[in-house]
Amino acid sequence: MTPSSVIEIGRVAIEVTLLVATPMMLAALVTGLVVSIFQAATQINEMTLSFVPKLIAMFLTLVLAGPWMLTVLTDYMRRLFESIPGMIG
């Protein structure tokens, strides 16, 4: 196993992590932005007002994008396990 193969495995792992985390982070970002605009417009400064909508949005995103996220992770793990014999030999 060469250093370049280790770096390649790490690079692909980071790419998969970012790819899987992106839908959840975008949902939280958009929801937080909408709630912040609503709070600024109404001058309501309640901390739980921003938490509950984010939680609901992230749950809905997980329900909708969960199968895709699981497929991406499963494909990565399968490719990684299938490449083990080639790395050793």
Topology:
Blueprint: H1 3-42, H2 47-82, H3 84-88
Helix pairs in contact: 1-2
Q: Averaging pLDDT over every residue, what do you get?
A: 92
Globular, elongated, flat, extended or rod-shaped: what is the shape?
elongated
Helical/strand content category: mainly alpha
Per DSSP, the total helix count is 3
Largest pleated sheet: none
Structure notes:
The protein is mostly helical and 89 residues long. It has one domain. Helices cover 91% and strands 0% of the residues. It is built from 3 helices and no strands. Helix 1 packs antiparallel against helix 2. The longest helix is centred in the first third of the chain and has 40 residues. It is elongated and about 65 Å long.
Short description:
The protein has 89 residues and is mainly α. 91% of the residues lie in helices and 0% in strands. The chain contains three helices and no strands.
Quick tags:
single chain, 89 residues, mainly alpha, elongated
